Amino acid sequence: MPQLSKARDYGSVLLGSTGDSQRLKRVRTQFYLTISIVISHVIGIGIVIVLITVGIPEPSVFRRELVWVNFVAVPIVIVAALLIGVVWGTYSTVRALRWAIRGEKPTAADAKAARRVPARLEAIQGLLWLAATIGFTIAYGIVDPQLIPKILFVLGFAGTVVVGIAALLTEFILRPTEAELIAAGFTGGRRRRLRGRAISAWLVGSGIPIVGILLVGLFTVLFDNMDKRDMVVAVWVIGGVALFTGLLLTVLSNSSVVGPVRSVQEGMRRVRAGDNDVDLVVYDGSELGDLQVGFNTMVRGLRERERIRDLFGRHVGEEVADAALRNDPELGGSEQVVATMFIDVIGSTALAASRTPTETVAILNRFFAVIVEAVETNQGLVNKFEGDAVLAIFGAPMPLPDPAGAALVTARQIAAALPSRVPELTAGIGVGYGAAVAGNVGAIERFEFTVIGDPVNESARLSELAKRDSARPLASKVAVDAAGTDEARHWEVLDSEMLRGRSEPTVVCAAIV
């Protein structure tokens, strides 16, 4: 099934397309996960440095007795945390996604493990920062207990930012994996709801910075060495950090919403343009994924409706199908002036006797194709296939300005085309014209559109007479007189015939060849 755009199957060109190989998907996923872990840690470390040195300068950590912590323990912990976070996170992710790496169909256990990957990575990063927060709070607190709230807040804030960024980036990176799980039928156990994403973005972008500003005010009151200038600088720095982290988290959170919404918008645009061959890749683990599923369900319904309409139109004709779809069809009909054309194969019994059933059907299908093409070209309706005969109607259910002329020109076109396109067959063609009842005939459970009246019988009897010379279709003089002069000049009067089943003679005309 064609997708919207292979460059944006997962909402971003960075994630590739559904047609990529499993190896490429694996390499891309591992690379992006590693980069996301490093970036989130670097951002967290940068926040710590800015807040400790400028944002909350007092009480200061730059003391002689803290040199070993600042210039030995901190670098070691930073490097160790990066290595452990990358190795541990990548290993656990690859282990949970082995089925995807091998190109296998996931099991229920695989789906459960894969959907735990974001939470596991969040837990790993969270544990690393929690350990650092506890360890450094103790280390700095031993030297100066007044440093405890400062270190606790700074590292706690930075760790929360790291976890928040890592969570959103991980969800983004694992979209192809989520898409494979949903495609495999594992639609339950969604990872994160939109409300949770919004709360996380607020917590990191607003909640914790506000707590930090409150703590700065408290430190100003508690510590004599922190003046108003330090407080103003601290508030500005914390506010600036909050602006950065809030914007970053908001952008990441919004991107998780914009991608699925844009895919649905693009799908709707194509559907409005008449293209129902659209199938979105469902990759989101929130309510937006339900939106994508709903869109696909809607489009499948439209495709099925179009398929049924197409089949319906093939069975009863496009005009009848359109009329039935516009209005609730009812039994009965109305009297209309129509032209009818009846075409009957000559020697069909001999044909069936000399050919295999398959060959006979193939020849008849070519014969019917010529008739359908000519009838539809002249805005008529092929009403019935009766064995090796065809009944066509002009002027119902859709009115025509000149139904008689349309039927007559169709008869001549068919007579001219059959010798070259279906040389195995000849047929008698008759055209009638007059008032008839057009409508639905049958029972309410099963009915069909047809025309009943004298023109139908007249055209059928004329087709029998036309078998004498299949090159010259026959028509009643009434039909020829009703046609426009441009068409009437192609016909000539022969004589009167007493057609079978009629009480009065019919003046017969033949096409001029």
UniProtKB/TrEMBL annotation:
GO terms for biological process: cAMP biosynthetic process; intracellular signal transduction. It is found in: Cell membrane. One of its GO terms (molecular function) is adenylate cyclase activity. Residues 255-307 form the HAMP domain. It comes from the Bacteria. The keyword Chloroplast does not apply. This is Adenylate cyclase. It is a multi-pass membrane protein. Keywords: Cell membrane, Membrane, Transmembrane, Transmembrane helix. Pfam families: Guanylate_cyc, HAMP. Belongs to the adenylyl cyclase class-3 family.
